[in-house]
Design goal:
The chain is globular and about 55 Å long. A hairpin with a 6-residue loop joins strand 4 (176-182) and strand 5 (189-195). The protein has 9 helices and 5 strands. The N and C termini lie far apart (58 Å). The chain has a 5-stranded mixed sheet with strand order 2-1-3-4-5, covered by helices on one side. It has helices at residues 3-21, 25-31, 49-53, 75-87, 102-107, 115-129, 131-135, 140-160, 163-172; strands spanning 37-42, 60-65, 92-98, 176-182, 189-195. The structure holds cobalt (II) ion. Cobalt (II) ion (CO) binds next to helix 5.
């Protein structure tokens, strides 16, 4: 059996197991999707949203990209956010970074990574904002870990700058936005920051929503 055939084989066994435990399992999931959470995480294979939070299919709407960035000009991201907020009406948005993030580490170097430069440049911009604090951390791993935390904090801020979010805040007093960081070494998620609905941000980013 090849490596990919093994995946298909495991899938069959999983589906059978689910039906054995609950004959209505797939029928129920097929009919309705009502997740309470939108997860914005890193593409890193070691940080699977559902596994590390013990959530089941149907519970988390997921968007992942390199270094868990909130990029409003990214049509993929913007579509996910709009759908999650306006249609699914998620109650919580979680931005989850992780210590030891390769994307964040790469952004701290001068390596030319081609098109990836454009993506990681957004992390360089965050480094520049916090350069005084970051440059003072001598240990390179500790410095990268702090940048991971600051990146999550900035992405939470970025979500609040979105007009769909601001409209939903005003209308329904949801969603709450959470910034978390996952530890690859111990499997523990550390909450970094939280933003309640209707938090006032810099007025420059506040839209006239009704
Ligand atoms: Co990563």
């Amino acid at each position: 059996m090849t490596v990919y055939e093994k995946l298909l084989h495991e899938n069959k066994a999983w589906a059978k197991d689910q039906v054995e435990k609950d004959p209505e399992y797939f029928k129920r999931l097929e009919q309705i999707q009502q997740p309470e959470f939108l997860w914005i995480g890193c593409s890193d294979s070691r940080v699977p949203a559902d596994k590390i939070t013990c959530t089941q299919p149907g519970e988390i709407f997921v968007h992942r990209n390199i270094a868990n960035l909130v990029v409003h000009t990214d049509v993929n991201f913007s579509s996910v956010l709009k759908y999650a907020v306006e249609v699914l009406q998620v109650k919580h948005i979680i931005v989850c970074g992780h210590y030891g993030c390769g994307g964040v580490r790469a952004a701290m170097t001068n390596q030319d990574l081609g098109i990836i430069n454009k993506w990681l440049r957004q992390i360089k911009d965050i480094y520049r904002i916090y350069s005084e604090e970051l440059d003072a951390i001598e240990d390179i791993d500790a410095r990268a870990d702090r940048l991971v935390e600051l990146n999550v904090k900035e992405q939470v801020m970025n979500i609040a700058k979105n007009s769909s979010i601001q409209r939903q805040w005003k209308k329904n007093n949801i969603p709450h936005i959470h910034g978390w960081v996952y530890g690859l070494n111990d499997g523990i998620i550390k909450p970094i920051c939280e933003m309640e609905p209707n938090t006032h941000i810099d007025p420059l980013y506040e839209y006239d929503v009704d």
